[in-house]
Amino acid sequence: MSTKTKKSQYNFQAIETKWRSHWEQENTYQTLGPGNPGFDDNKPKCYILDMFPYPSGAGLHIGHPKGYIASDIYSRYKRMQGFNVLHPMGFDSFGLPAEQYAIEHNIHPATVTEQNIDAMRSQLQFLGLSFDWTREVVTSQTSYYGWTQWIFAQLFDSYFDTGEVWEDGNGRQIKGRAKPIADLEAQFAAGRALSATDRQVLGTDTAWSALTTAQQQAVLNNYRLAYQQEAVVNWCPGLGTVLANEEVTNEGRSERGDFPVYRKPLRQWTMRITAYAERLLEDLDFELEDRNGAPFRLDWPEPIKRMQRNWIGRSEGAEVSFDVLDPQSDAVAGQLPVFTTRPDTLFGATFMAIAPQHPLVDPAGEAYLVPNAWPEETPEPWKGGGDSIREAVAQYVAQVAVSTADETKEKTGIFSGIYARNPVNEQKIPIFVADYVSMDYGAGAIMAVPAHDERDFAFATAYNLDIIKVVTGEEGRVEGWYAGEGTAINSPPVLKADGSPPRRGGDNPYTINGLATVEAKAQIINALVAQGRGQAEVNYKLRDWTFARQRYWGEPFPLATHPDGYSVAVEPPVVLPDLEDFRPETSDDPTQPVSPPLHRAGTEWTTVEIDGVACQRELNVMPQWAGSCWYYLRFIDPHNEEVFCDPAKEGYFMPVDLYIGGAEHAVLHLLYARFWHKALYDLGHVSTPEPFKKLFNQGMMTADAFQDERGVYIDIREVEFRDGEPVEKGTGKVLRRSFGKMGKRYKNGLPPEEVGEEFGVDTLRLYEMYMGPLEASAPWSMEGIRGMQRFLQRVWRNFVDSDRR
RNA sequence: GCCGGGGUGGCGGAAUUGGUAGACGCGGUGGACUUAAAAUCCACUGUCCGCUUAGGACGUGCCGGUUCGAGUCCGGCCCUCGGCACCA
Asked: Which segments within A282-427 are labelled E, that is strand?
């Protein structure tokens, strides 16, 4: 090749190498903020953030940078428009992915993480992305996670004052607020009465001052935003840890690793995210303001907002209290509260169903009411085949508990031998234990209205229970039940079945006949309130967030247990001890005891002296989401050793103007981060009620994948085409082609360097943007990229090279 | 089952408010340059009818509607991708 031809070639390698090193040496993309010398306060700011990656051993493939390229283009555009652009990058390095990789390759997670971060950083720099690398944060570094622990400590030291209605700095009224737990403690000391739950926890009703510290702490635990709770958790012995609901798949398996997950009661650190359910829901749509009073509304893709709304799952209805009758005497033995969204169908309630874990059928509990023998008139099918009723019920409960989380289509149940009385018509109705009722939603019990609910209908049909129609719909019934709105009838029945007048005549206070569903609901709730049998209630599907993991590679809790059994705060940072044996204790056996690896750290670490008392450190670690809940704040002030983020800088840069990342974080990261942010907002540590103003989900990169006859994926670089048939290069074996997401496990991704070196990074970047709309998924094509290369070559020849001649 | 996104050439995809459907790119065909190849450049490339030309018909998942005019608006369906799933 002659020198002349070479010169006229578009030499992307020379160009890209030159500018990469120039940008690096000059720190071209370093961003200044308040307090930095040379900072220009007159420039408007723009905070452009990417969801930071976790450093996996496989490194990045060409699908990953799609969002980074887009945010880079936007950042450069805003800089040219005169904005002070904050565009940082870091690594989410604690958590299961890094630890699983370390286990598989038998290297310490700290070593693996460091190696992987270095490799990924070079990959990102190779792509010419204009990140300010001086602001890099790594969530597994003590200088970072010390502040994660500090935020945890804020949550531990706070409670949610549900009743408080307050105005934020911009005059917006907000209901409920996180406040220092010391305030609550002071109220108790000043004579605030303990709640019923508090007294139940204590088992005593003495004055606050007369309680021991341990008793006081037991009460306060029930108010803290980070608290300990005995709850049924998702126990995954295959990973040796418990998981959040969000980390368990529909099939009842772990999102990571695909191990079976079992339900297990365990005392766990938990985040009171449910306290924020209403605000997390409202602020998806409200017009908000930043510190300067500039209005903003969350500009998020509607499907993501909808997913968050569904996840929070607000539903309005009523709590109704049914009398529970003593099986021997028929006297009122207690109350069975239920939650219903359709109080207007109370007259159609012909039986009740309670969760298998319900106290009424727990032999160890005080509320246990299952009689010694089946009531005389009990139909055979209700008995579930058992002889002794107590045995049969216990057996049923045990059997349901063993079955995994996945759904069985058939609804099953067993008669508890107990009856309840419907408050609106005084009717005696049977209480069933049923597997379609879950303990952790509503009251763990339902009133069943078979005529107007699909599940109740199926159950009533199977067990031959009464079906009474109390709503007429304009639409026809669907297979015997109708769940839509309509007009109330038979509420109460005008005439009894035999034509005689109804039992209670027309003076029934619950009468709603002829009313449309909406009015009927309101009317009957009023009546329930007047009779002291219930009230309007709102329920949420959202559960509190199980926050502890029995793993090694995570943030240790800044907590220890006092010899008297209560938790005390430990000053952060609590450094993760260097354990040689970091492996979790995994097993196939769901009954294996839970045992966090940090118990091997030795007493010099596990014991800590606080106020002269030797306390035991908390041995669990935080879940992988902890670090990503606030990294966007640390980017603003990454090297500050005094505070987690300087308020002046925070006020200048927040909120994040554009947040780009995948839709897979719609309900996990994005909900957790909003929750932490709101708690920090209440406590005065951040200036905006929401962290991310505009959210954009880039579509995923798809590609062909190839499997041999055993189903093993073959790396796409080992595949060639013969007569249009995909075959493995070495063996010539014919392969099966499938199409889907690009990923490590499908071996259908290419490292960006490989493509960049062959075609040029600018060509790669241009092609990724050219493939179609950013939000849509697009298939990678090795042919398509050539068009972009030709384009850049033409640009070079026509505009640059021609100048030289 | 419920909620949401999406169906346009051989392929990726364009078409701002209802106004020439298929921009741009890939692939394909033919040609130029070259000893040859690569690279590059030029032309053509929705389908069908028409020998060629001239021209014509059809065409945005399916059926119907509104309109002078529909990929775009309305009603009903089909397929596909994603989320949720006994939530009372």
From this structure: 288-289, 295-296, 314-325, 332-340, 351-354, 413-421
A 520-549, residues with C-beta < 7 Å of strand B: 539, 541
In strand B, the nucleotides that come within 7 Å of a protein beta carbon are 3-5, 11-14, 25-27, 39-41, 81-88
pLDDT over threshold 60, residue A364: yes
* Both tokens assigned to A613: 């008392």
Using alpha carbons, list the distances in angstroms from residue A582 to A104, A114, A429, A555, A593. Answer: 12, 16, 56, 14, 17
* Alpha-carbon span A262 to A587, nearest angstrom: 12
Sheet containing A84-86, strands listed edge to edge, beginning at the edge strand earlier in sequence? A84-86, A45-50, A656-661, A692-697
Cβ A568 vs Cβ A560: under 8 Å: yes
Give this complex's ipTM: 0.91
Which of the four pLDDT bands, split at 50, 70 and 90, describes residue A237? confident
User: What does the alpha-carbon distance between residue A693 and residue A47 come to, in Å, rounded to a whole number?
Assistant: 10
pLDDT digits (tens, 9 = 90+) for A4-53: 334 457 889 889 999 999 999 999 999 999 999 999 989 999 999 999 99
CA A659 to CA A661: how far, in whole Å?
7
pLDDT of residue A476: 52
Indicate yes or no: strand B within 7 A of the C-beta of A760. Answer: no
Tell me the three state secondary structure of residue A39: coil
Distance of CA A610 to the CA centre of its chain: 34
User: pLDDT over 90 for what percent of chain A?
Assistant: 61
Question: Shortest CA–C1' contact from A790: which nucleotide?
Answer: B40
Residues 6+ away with beta carbon under 8 Å from A400? A356, A412, A435
Q: How far apart are CA A460 and CA A481, in angstroms?
A: 11
Whole-prediction pTM:
0.92
Task: Summarize pLDDT for A573-627 with one digit per residue, the tens.
Answer: 999 999 989 988 888 888 878 888 999 999 999 999 999 999 999 999 999 999 9
Alpha-carbon distance values, A719 to A704, A705, A725 (Å):
11, 10, 10
Pairing of strands A559-561, A567-569: antiparallel
∠A606-A610-A612 over CA atoms, to 5°? 115
